[in-house]
Amino acid sequence: MKGKILVIEDNEQNLYLIRYILEDCDYEVFAAMDGKEGIALAACLLPDLILLDIQLPLMDGYAVARNLRENPDLADTPIVAVTSYAMPGDKEKAMEAGCSGYIEKPINPDTFDKQVGKYLSLKRQDRREP
Ligand code: MN
Asked: In the predicted model, what is the mean pLDDT of residues 22-44?
């Protein structure tokens, strides 16, 4: 196993695609379909990386990221926003909320695992993108 990845995503097709790509690359994949479930799962799994959809029911990805960062056990965990909601300023909003970076939808199956791998290899001090 290359690592545990928690995917917080409410769209079943996206979840299916992400799981398919990452399991094929030998990652262990866990899924939550809303932020509340994701926060609870993250706290008990302590994953190596969290992929976070921004448009989620109940609480949006920004609120989820802020909440995840309040847990000291998750302070160093890479949190990568995955969203098609790419309005100007969204990336900055995601970073302000505590995300380590940003992958735009639609997911590209040819490059997705490399994008994820890049964040997994980042250490705490350079967790954020340059
Ligand atoms: Mn969504």
From this structure: 97
Instruction: Give the bridge partners for 102, in sequence order.
Output: 81
Q: How remote is the CA of residue 83 from the centroid of ligand 1, in Å?
A: 8
Tens digit of each residue's pLDDT (9 = 90 or more) over 34-86: 999 999 999 999 999 999 999 999 899 999 999 999 999 999 999 999 987 66
Quote the ligand 1 centre to 55 CA distance (angstroms).
Answer: 4
Count of alpha carbons within 13 angstroms of residue 111, beta-carbon side: 7
Residue identified by tokens 């802020």 is 66
Check residue 73 and report its DSSP letter: G
Q: What distance in angstroms lies between residue 85's CA and the mean position of ligand 1's atoms?
A: 9
For residue 56, how far is its CA from the centre of ligand 1 (angstroms)?
Answer: 5
Report CA 68 to chain centroid distance, whole Å. Answer: 11
CA of residue 60 to ligand 1 center, whole Å: 9
* pLDDT reported for residue 124: 42
